[in-house]
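Question (not urgent): is this output format expected?
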Amino acid sequence: MSTPAPQTPRVSVIIPVYNAVEHLDECVQSLVDQTLGFDRMEVIAIDDGSTDGSAEALDRWADAHRNITVVHQPNSGAPGGPRNRGIDLAAGEFLFFADPDDYLGAEALERLTAAADRDSSDVVLGRTKGVGRTAAVAPFAHNVEAGDIWTTKGVWALTAHKLFRRALVEKHRLRFAEGLRLAEEQVFIVPAYFLAASISVVADYDCYYLVRRDDFPHLTQQTPEPEPFYRNVRDVLDIVVKHTEPGGKRNDLLKRWVTQEILRYFKGGFPAMPAERQQRFVAQAGALLRDFVPDEVTGPLPPLDRLRCQLLRTEQTEELAALAALVPKQQPKPKAKAKQPPPPWLSRAGARRLTRAIQRRIQA
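Got this back:
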C-alpha cells in the first residue's frame, strides 16, 4: 500500500529567534492554537545564535510537533538574514512572519488566508494590536478587498507581520535586508505591495499582538548608524520612484518616509549626539531630501517639520541641534478637551521667529 504524498502546508510561519526564551512558548502556542488547523501549517524557527536557552526550548517544541523545523546558526546580528533563510526552506502556499516575543490571535491565519482566497490577493494585512506599545492604525480603519498600496494605506504598516503569497516572493526574489537592525523589512514589503495582484486588509479582528517586553530589547528603540540606515531608506525610495510617476500619488507615499524615517532622529535626542555623529545624520538625511523629495511634499508639513526639512536640505547641523533643544518635548494629550492657545511656533510667523532665535543662539 503506497504512502500518500505529504500535503503542501497552507502557511509557512517563519520566526527569527534570538534570546527570547521567556516568551517563545506564548508565541508558538498561539500558532498551535490556530483555528486554521496546526496540521495545515509549518513553523520554521531560525535560532540566531541564542545563548539563553531559546535553542533548547525550540528543540523541545520540534520534538513534540513534526511540522516545526528548527535551524541553529551563528548570530547574524539582525532578523533579516534568519527570515531569508526561512524563506529558502519554506514550502507553504503562503508565508507569515512572526517575532518570538509576540503572538497571534487564534483566528488570524484562518481569516488572512480566507481574504487571500476571496480576493486573489498576494498580500494580506491583519490588524495589529499594541500591548504596551503603539501599533499601526491608519490601514485598519475598515476591511479592504482587492486593494492596492494606496487604498490600503499599506505604507503606514511596514512591519513584517503579514501574509504573503510565496509564489510572489519567489517570482521576484523578494528578500529582507541583512545585517540591518532597523527597517530591514521595507525592501521586502514595499516591492511586494507594488507587485501584488491585489492587497487585502482584515481590520475587524486583532490578528497580531505586538508586545513591549521590559526584558526584551526592541530594535525600534535604538539609534542606528546613519549610513546603513539611510542607505536602506534610499533603496526603498528607489523602489517607490521606480513604480510611480511624479505627482500627487507618489508624493502621498514620499510623505510617509519624510515624516517617519528622514526626520526621525532630529528631535529630542539629537542635541545629545556627538557633533561628528550629528553631521553624519544631517548629511545622509539632507541628501535624501534633495534627491527624492520635491517642495510640494514638505510644504504642507507642520511648521516645525517644514523648518527641519529646510535646515536639512542646506545641512545646517547647528541650527537643527538648537531647534531640537529649544522645542519642548511633546507631552501626552490630556483626556479632557481643554481649550488652550496653540504653541507660538505652530504658524508660519512663529516658525520664522523660531528660526531667528536659533540663529541668534548659534551666533552668541
